[in-house]
Amino acid sequence: MRYLTKKESDGVLHQMTWPPQSPKLNPIEIFWDELDRRVKEKQPTSAQHMWELLQDCWKSIPGKCDEALATPLSHTAFTSSSVYSSGYGAGYAKLNRRGGAGGWSPVDTDHYQWLQVDLGTRKQVTSIATQGRYSSSDWTMQYRLLYSDTGRNWRPYLQDGNIWAFSGNSNSESVVRHDLQHAVITRYVRIIPLEWSKEGRIGLRVEVYGCSYWADVINFEGQGVISYRFKMKKMKILKDVISLKFKTTASNGVLLHGEGQQGDYISLELKRSKLLLMINLGSNQYGSILGHTSVTSGSLLDDDHWHSVIIERYRRNVNFTLDRHTQHFRTNGEFDHLDLDYEISFGGMPVSAKPSSGGRENFVGCMEGITYNGDNITNLVKRKKIDTSSFRNLTFSCSETHSFPVFFNATSFLRLPGLQDSDTLSVSLSFRTWNPSGLLFYTALADGVVEVGLTEGKVTVYINVAQKKNTRIDISSGSGLNDGQWHNVYLHALENYAMLTIDGDEASTVRTVIPIQIRTGGQYYFGGYFLRTNTPPAQRSFQGCMQLIHVDDQLADLVAVEQGNMGTFENVSLDMCAIIDRCVPNHCEHGGRCTQTWDSFRCSCNGTGYTGATCHTSVYEQSCEEYKHLGKTSGTYWIDPDGSGPVGPFKVNCNMTGKSTVPPKPTKQKIHLTIMASDDCVPSEQPCFLSLANERHYYWGGSGPGIQKCACGIERNCTDPKYYCNCDADQTREDAGLLVYKDHLPVSQVVVGDTNRAGSEAKLTVGPLRCQGDGNYWNAASFNTPASYLHFPTFQGETSADISFYFKTSSSYGVFLENLGNADFIRLELKAATVVSFSFDVGNGLVELSVRSSTPLNDDQWHRVVAERNVKEAVLQLDGQFKEVRPAPPQGHTRLELYSQLYVGASGGQRGFLGCIRALKMNGVTLDLEERAKVTPGVKPGCSGHCTSYGQHCRNGGQCMEKYNGYSCDCTLTAYDGPFCTEDVGGYFESGTLVRYDFLPEGGLPAIRDVKSLSPLLPTEGNLTQEELVFSFSTSNTPSILVYISSRTQDYLAVVLRHNGTLQIRYSLGGLREPFTIDLDQRNMANGQPHHINISRQERNIRLQLDHYPPVSYTLPAGSDTKFNLVKTIFLGKVFETGQIDPVLIEKYNTPGFVGCLSRVQFNNIAPLKAALRSGIVAPVTTQGILVESNCGASPLTISPMAAANDPWHLDSAGAVFPFNEERVSRDGVDRNAAIIGGIIAVVIFTILCTLVFLIRHMFRHKGSYHTNEAKGAESADCADAAIIVNDPAFTETIDESKKEWFI
């Protein structure tokens, strides 16, 4: 930043470089305050002297906040816990100095030692450097950094959500410097050694780097309020910038408040130690526009440390920053201006506030650096430019608090003395913790013990006294006390009486009469008790903070404890509360609920639509296309267009054969993501309309941008040629069409205007949004050389990152992608033919996850990789089944900081990837590989060979067809439809309905002009040595001809349903006097249930399968011909034919015709029923009668063969065990009612079975002798069902050789 000023004497404009060290929002204001202070210290004597001093002081302010702050200090500014000897004093602990013994060393080498530096005034500290003691074996290998404004109430330096441990020295001379991730404002710095030289002891020299800091401070005692009055009575504000710093020990209080008469307001207040920002830019009187918006930030803000707040608002967009954590949000309602009246107040509610705003506490504590829209409020107060009459005692310094917190970990305890042999026990303390259980204090009585602890979030007291007999008293009070807030516990016990009070609330007080006498033991253990005793406490330790400890109604002198003058402690941090809220900021994404203990947190993702350790990964697919390729059928599904991105999932109606519909409920952002990912998106129907970005477009459906005409105006066929839309002429004709520009969708608002036409009426309809395809799913690139790669902007995934993609390759190694930082990096690669690796470094060292596939990955098939890294864990998954999970370390760096471009394919000399990558998504965003590949040498857009991986999805003979961005299934040569050829095509036949399919006539091709889709359906030759007929049917009527295939000779194939409902297959290929027949006498097939038939022939061998039963083979007699000569016509349902026809078929089975359902009929590669029902297929097919499309004849595609014991047709399937409900069985194992009912049911079942046996034996009785060959395998079959097919014992049939013509 540069600041320009002018020297009046010579008129020359001078340029001064502005040092960027101040963290304040208004740096120029603060800079001039600092410059003013430095000049006044020099006491200028004249204007010229002042100008010279001004230039000198300007130059003295460094351009970078990197001054050595400790070296210029006197020896007295350095203090320590102890000194080994006079030459080892703290004053010798200056970096690179050799005075004394060459540095500081304490008497004892343990974890209770510290070195402290008083910087004189508050400074901005940016770095710290350490050395060991000069020319010795003493150095510090690891340490913690504490800081404080007052030398009391220390705060540990936090980084990445943890109390940070800095790495130190490994010898006595080298300097190890650490730049702080975030600067701190402090006067006192304290270093706590954690590890030291194994050859020597603790040794330390130190330097602190930073720069000057200065700010006006105002102390708020709870009465005074700063009211900043506006220059105008009413302010209509479009943009706000407000900043301040505060520190307090109070958990509630108003920091700022402003309001207007129209209902607008802005308010910032502490509520239960959290910061609550409330903004209302206006609500209308009807309540349809509600402007109230509230956002919460931070936690544990009553810790008496400084916290920085910045509020930036432009219209409805707000940035709310607390201690470097920024929340971005948009206010509710539709108004942009904040209308305030008279004033805005700081520290409490103004006198002019509405009565409804009352009842809120004023702020108690300190504020500094208050700025409001460029005005330095604290400076104006100091200069008495603002009325401060409400303050009883206005001071510009921060008053010290007298609390002395104590920090306990799981191995800590604090022992304090009390009165011995007293008949009254009185202890009180304040505590804060996240753990639901822990020991608050424990004391041994003269003849018993008292234990006060936290159990499941409530305070419990156990008093156990052994006088004449053991007496145990249990009392408890409170709930949810492990919420991180300060809570006060007061226990008062004396003879025959005990009282427990929580937070001073009389309603929480529990009083009980105890039949015992109290005799205190004189020693109290707080936070832990690890001595062996006959009556140990239920809780051994406590993790959290305590303060204001009173024993025998006397405040414990913890300073004396720290100095070793009273009591003892172990592993306790005195004068510090290092509690950390691990749920702020909340790492649980997408609304996941965060819960925590002292050491960790966990996310509950129930009901969010996301999963994982931080609720990062969506449980839904991103589009209908992805559901489609998982084999899902049309229906309603949840989709998440941006995956792990901020937009949540919503429901859509997926049509797997066409365009899917987006219901009107999702937000505009959700719909927009769906639109941009789709190949094609239009509303069904659509003056002026608003798009997602509130852009106005003046065109209607069927037209385009900028034309300002309806479709009839473009085509010049409007009802009234004077107008460009039918509606303008007040006619009944409509203006309709599609909006096809994806960038203008979705439509958020439609505006219809009219002028000077009273009484005009119109009906407006906006149809549903329909989208097709998913360009992201098939977005792919082919890497053709080991050195080829694509580059993209740096991947932003500091605390949470997910990467997913598909790959196919014939190579056994290669880098999929890589992104580098200074030390951090992230990489995914194929390390071997069966191994995929995910490696990264966030500053804690290399972490590598590997998964091994059971089959080679270089098989040129698509494989899917999913990798995720967050603050809790790292996950790598391959093909949805091979997975490795690696928990994150409890301490250490958590942010992934990258700076280079993201390279896909190869980078940094790594082995390049050869093959295809598609659908590469990073944090829910699909990278456009195809677009980048178009301009990159060695990389081609798209990827061929999808059918090698997905061809198996094309079922029932469907052919996989390669597409540029995917594949499709060609169902032309099948009897099925749908995206994967799995949808049955069938129809319902009424009486007399028939379908006729004609093969090639004698003259060649049929007289059909358009034969583009006919050719695949035509046979390549007229004489068949093999054929296959497959179909399904259901009916309740007999007799009928199901399928009849004729020829120009006397050859034919017929499948008929006889009078008794049994099936008969008739083959006549010549050479035999009578047709070869196969009769299925075992069951009635006209039972209304769907049945499936598959008949295939290879010369003389016939294979027949019915429903789910095993196939059975038959053989044509030796005299039979093996060719089906000159196939002519396929008839379905009825025969209507001229020429020689088997009279048996006509006389017995052709009248009245088939009534029922036929489905998926296919003869070789001919699907006659599908050709009849699909208008888009040009084929030589005709229909007579009424044919209605229906799949009522379809049966399941695949049913596993049933065992004989479970076969419903098998009569010997006795002994089946049926499940029962164990919960309803009586305790002795016998359910009496069930036993009685079971007996009755058994009798009924036995009677029914006997009846069925009699009926079936009657139906299936042997009627005569076979006159055709018996089925192969029938002799060895266990039963008739196993063989399935037997021959018809009926009459001998003859063929009438005379030609007849039938008209049925």
State the shape.
elongated
Radius of gyration: 44 Å
| Strand segment tally | 84
Strand percentage lies at 35-45%
Mean pLDDT: 82
Low-confidence stretches: 1-26, 1002-1021, 1197-1235, 1259-1304
Compute the number of helices: 13
Q: How would you portray this structure in words?
A:
This protein is mainly β. It has 13 helices and 84 strands. The strands form 18 sheets. Strands 26, 27, 28, 29, 30, 31, 32, 33, 34, 35, 36, 37 and 38 form a 13-stranded antiparallel β-sheet that branches. Strands 3, 4, 5, 6, 7, 10, 11 and 12 form an 8-stranded antiparallel β-sheet that branches. The longest helix has 28 residues. The relative contact order is 0.05. The N terminus and C terminus are likely disordered.
Key features?
84 strands; mainly beta; disordered N terminus; 8-stranded antiparallel sheet
Blueprint (SSEs and pairs):
Elements: E1 2-6, E2 13-17, H1 27-42, H2 47-60, E3 67-68, E4 78-80, E5 115-131, E6 140-148, E7 155-156, E8 158-159, E9 162-163, E10 166-167, E11 176-196, E12 205-212, E13 217-221, E14 226-237, E15 239-247, E16 253-259, E17 265-271, E18 274-280, E19 292-297, E20 307-314, E21 317-322, E22 325-330, E23 338-346, E24 364-372, E25 375-376, H3 377-382, E26 406-417, E27 424-432, E28 438-445, E29 448-455, E30 458-466, E31 470-477, E32 487-494, E33 497-502, E34 510-512, E35 520-526, E36 544-551, E37 554-555, H4 558-562, E38 568-574, E39 593-596, E40 601-604, E41 610-611, E42 617-618, H5 624-628, E43 635-639, E44 650-654, E45 660-662, H6 668-677, E46 680-683, E47 688-690, E48 696-697, H7 711-715, E49 749-751, E50 769-772, E51 780-783, E52 790-792, E53 800-808, E54 814-820, E55 825-832, E56 835-841, E57 847-852, E58 863-870, E59 873-878, E60 882-887, E61 902-904, E62 915-922, E63 925-926, H8 929-933, E64 939-941, H9 947-950, E65 959-963, E66 966-970, E67 976-977, E68 983-984, E69 986-989, E70 994-998, E71 1026-1035, ...
Antiparallel strand pairs: 1-2, 3-12, 4-5, 5-11, 5-12, 6-7, 6-10, 6-11, 8-9, 13-24, 14-23, 15-20, 15-24, 16-17, 16-23, 17-18, 18-19, 20-21, 21-22, 24-25, 26-35, 26-36, 26-38, 27-32, 27-36, 28-29, 28-35, 29-30, 30-31, 32-33, 33-34, 36-37, 39-40, 41-42, 43-44, 45-50, 46-50, 47-48, 47-49, 51-62, ...
Helix pairs in contact: 1-2
